[in-house]
Amino acid sequence: MVSRSPIGQSVPRREGVAKVTGAAxxxxxxxxxxxxxxxxxxxxxxxxxxxxxxxxxxxxxxRVVVVTAADIPGENVVxxxxxxxxVLARVGGDIRHKEEPILLLAAPERGTLEAAARHVRMEYxxxxxVYDLDGALEVYSTIQxxxxxxxxxxxxxxxxxxxxxxxxxLYIEPQGAIAIPEPGGAIRIIGSLQCPYYVxxxxxxxxxxxxAQAIVVQAETGGGFGGKEEYPSMVAIHAAxxxxxxxxxxxxxxxxxxxxxxxxxxxxxxxxxxxxxxxxGTLLAQDIEIVLDGGGYCTLTxxxxxxxAIHAAGAYSCPNVRIxxxxxxxxxPPNGAFRGFxxxxxLFAAELMVEHAAGRLGMSSVDLRRKWMLRLGDTTATGQKLxxxxxxxxxxxxxxxxxxxxxxxxxxxxxxxxGLSLVFHGSGFTGSGxxxxxxxxxxxxxxxxxxxILTASTEIGQGTKTIFCQLAADALGVSLDRVTLAPQDxxxxxxxxxxxxxxxxxxxxxLVQDAAAExxxxxxxxxxxxxxxxxxxxxxxxxxxDETNYRGDAYPIYAWACTIADVDVDMITGxxxxxxxxxxxxxxxxxxxxxxxxxxxGGSLQAVGWATIEEIKMxxxxxxxxxxxxxxxxxxxxxxxxxxxxxxxxxxxxxxxAKGIGELPMDGPAPAILAALHDAxxxxxxxxxxxxxxxxxxxxxx
Amino acid sequence: xxxxxNGRSVTYEASGARRLLDxxxxxxxxxxxxxxxxxxxxxxxxxxxxxxxVDSCLVAVGQVEGCEVVTVEGLAExxxxxxxxxxxxxxxxxxxxxxxxxxxxxAHVLLQRPDRLSADDVREGLAGNLCRCTGYxxxxxxxxxxRT
Lengths: 702, 148
Known about the structure:
- Chain A is an alpha+beta fold.
- Chain A is 25% helix and 25% strand.
- In chain B, helix 2 (83-91) runs antiparallel to helix 5.
């Protein structure tokens, strides 16, 4: 019997019952018999050399396992892009940031562990730390994008500099991994993570393991947002080193304080725009400089910088563009992946720049956006010609239509304002990323009449499991309950690529759809199960990318969003309260409307937090507010009413036309909120977060 | 010492100074209650003690002597989900799910109030439970759908 297609239906979340009954097992929920507790001892200086480690002889070390860099069987690197980050700082080696891991401990009880940590002494040879972007230690990477010639034009020039701050992902489940030694020298990692194969590769390298000896399994994961893209490799290697030396399982679960103090954050940066326009509003040139702070080690910084640079000109068509971007090293904890991956930073600047230009020209910024925005057939800063699914005007119209009239404030000390932003976000990996990666999935028709999807794409709340099953069930013409998923375990599933970059539904989802369709055809031809196939991504010939010159098709497609934010500004306290947020999103096709809305709403609130209250205070290379009592994220009371309008504008190669939208909602709210702040107060703040202190200072200096 | 957990009597012999959270998770196997911050800021470890929402990371187990403790495991009747649990699934109120147990308990208490809840009441009532995935919109919709 052929079932009704589940595509476009908001079917129940696959693991929904487990999540609402408490049955879902997250890493720290797992009972592992005989497991010890692990702990990381970290540097207290920001820069210098580790001279010596000493263990207090007065302490009873007999029930404690101690691991230092000397215990690493493979290479002392957390494998990623540059391999510059040590697993543990070695004696005689450099320290490049506070909270850098130096030594690991494991013990059967937490009390022993805490006591042991108090009896470890480090001797350092400190050097002068560098925190200044201009005097930075080194440059991790540079990118230049050139279109036309910005120096050849003459007109009205507007120049502004924008600053964006650090942000913590703040998944509610802290980082954690359990390492279990297995026969044959294998190590099994069960952890909270987004990318099983990142951890697999890093584990093999540091522990000198074969493919089969490194086994990485994702437990139910309590949020990621990029924070569990690369950092879990560090946690997993640490747990594995302890388990190997202890000869027993070790659980290494961070508490919130350690997680806030030591793990990666969104890259802060400074972005300068020099925009040239004609008096009639024609956009002539955009000259943009971006500097991002990568912190003490490289992590994913060059890729973050790449996405920042490619999105820097905004969703606009301009004949002459020069984007010069660089990412530098400072003696702060390394920054890394966070939803949006550089694009929110550069789009914040690009969108406020439209507002500044509109102000200078005396035009409405909505009209200016209509004049400038990329449309079908236009080319982006990298020279990519947009040939389909360009939703710029659709989302602008939809958001304007949906936003109600602003009612004036009825409190004398509160001013009300509205702001708008228009953004685009490349779905999937940049340039030839997907081609190089060749993400692979497996698909099986089993003898019992069920079907099984084998993929390393993880469920981190966004709905991977549900959407993959919908796509497969539709292609097979069967009910959802006949489709199952293999666990995200590297010993069972192929490398489908990391769960990042708004690529899972669009790129991996399409592979699932195609594989299911192929199996369905084979069954229709009379072939008998079991049938097992694999499908790998094949880059369409129509896409071309020049990595050296940053020219060509930077992304297979873009998703678009227009956000309208209403704010109340308390002129006494300086508090900026976002009261209403409307976002229209061109998602190509909403495979599961409720989950698509959930992505937009959740991402939007993270952006509201980044724009208003989420501030990390740095002092001497350390985060001062490294507790939840002091690092604030929006509560249900702080959150605005959020309305999402899904605009379906299909993309030919997405499953049913779907485009990736996971990161997009992080881009638009911040500039819309700062434009609303201006609308309410007449003050331009070119910096986020717009904390009460900054708002009051800006109002006072006006 | 004795207390009631999800309607069943529990006899417990150990230090009364241990955190209720740890006793629930480690000794009684009730791992539905989560630890998000360990200092009473996030609400992931919310449980009900005599019908009040409390952060179990801030409670010593000795304090619940003779009390009725309810965790997320106590919301369903056997395999029958409560209306609120079903609403969380239907409305998309659970994404990563880590805040869900605490959120459900806080919402469960709100729904016991005699007055008809407004959206603002729900926002206020859930302000002690952080969620980073949903933006709260779908959680609020789910709770409001359960008003009688």
